[in-house]
């Protein structure tokens, strides 16, 4: 896949997700996060920036079908996180993906404890588990294949995501951010 095609896919996904995110009705009115769409875009670019073409294309299809059906994945994800609705997807691959990503996160937080807090594992797992419940079986298949391939290649997708984030935030890299935080 060309870099242009990849960027277009990620951008299309993020714009669809942002529309869903801005439409989420919260109990206390509009959330602070909803008032910062650029932060949302950066975090979602971090999330999707390491995904394979197969995952991106399948997930984009999920989003299009959800829009056509009047579903809002963001509303569903946050309702799942707040225990307001029962699980909507119990596919066993979700647990496997969450465990792999959590292990990768633990590795990153051990290497860069000032940048990636160690105590965030539980919330990381909850967020990812609830997000993955909105994915179709085809997207979960592609995501599980990506996780397997990354493991076999010795890649750490969480580290790759944080490298994207650090570049977006102007640090250049995780190492640079960690060094800057250690100096203060």
From TrEMBL:
Organism: Desulfobaculum xiamenense
Matching InterPro entries: DUF4125
Protein name: DUF4125 family protein
Classification via Pfam families: DUF4125
